[in-house]
Design a protein that fits this description.
single chain, 200 residues, mainly alpha, 8 helices, 72% helix, globular
């Protein structure tokens, strides 16, 4: 079959944006690790626990979790029940994905943006502060991440739909930007290469 070339400039731009965001916010894990280690040291060695560790932990982890979500989708890294899915032809996979994107993904993400915007706006209006520690650090900045995450997911959803449409027409998935690879995929490639060499 003569396959159309994949002009993925928009798709790759969205992938690149979410990759950059995911990698920048990935540094939250180091800040979270440092804050947790200091809290353990202060609590058990200095006998002087901090009053900010809990707030720091959920804000840093929540930020990392939300801002890395679209990056994970760009890498096709979210968990799926793929024991049946992987046996299908790529075009069948793409049709199934398209149905799920329009039935569940986009309605859910649009709801997240709409509700998250109201949630963040209310938090900013009252200059909301945390109730979990005496200092009560401001958390309206943190809640602003909710609608931002929704917008990044919405953009990535558009990129994934374009991928699916290409795959439906051509029965092959277009390439993705690569920076990390699942160990399972590495082993499959290695095993496949060794099998081909052994069969020669």
């Amino acid at each position: 079959m003569n396959r159309e070339s994949f002009d993925g400039r928009l798709v790759y731009w969205i992938d690149s944006l979410n990759t950059w965001v995911g990698k920048v916010f990935g540094w939250c894990i180091l800040l979270l690790t440092a804050a947790t280690c200091y809290e353990v040291f202060a609590r058990y060695v200095l006998k002087a626990p901090t009053d900010w560790a809990f707030d720091a932990a959920y804000i840093l982890y929540g930020t990392l979790f939300m801002m890395a979500g679209a990056y994970t989708l760009a890498r096709n890294g979210h968990v799926r029940g793929d024991w049946l899915y992987r046996s299908w032809q790529p075009a069948t996979q793409a049709r199934f994905d398209l149905a799920l994107y329009f039935l569940f993904f986009f309605p859910g993400i649009i709801t997240l943006i709409y509700s998250g915007w109201d949630y963040a706006a209310h938090s900013w209006a009252m200059k909301e502060r945390s109730l979990f520690s005496p200092n009560g650090p401001p958390i309206y900045h943190f809640k602003t991440i909710i609608p931002i995450t929704g917008v990044l997911f919405l953009l990535q959803g558009v990129a994934e739909v374009l991928r699916c449409l290409y795959c439906v027409r051509n029965n092959v998935w277009p390439p993705r930007l690569g920076d990390v690879e699942e160990l399972e995929q590495v082993l499959q490639k290695q095993y496949g290469t060794e099998s081909q060499e052994a069969s020669r």
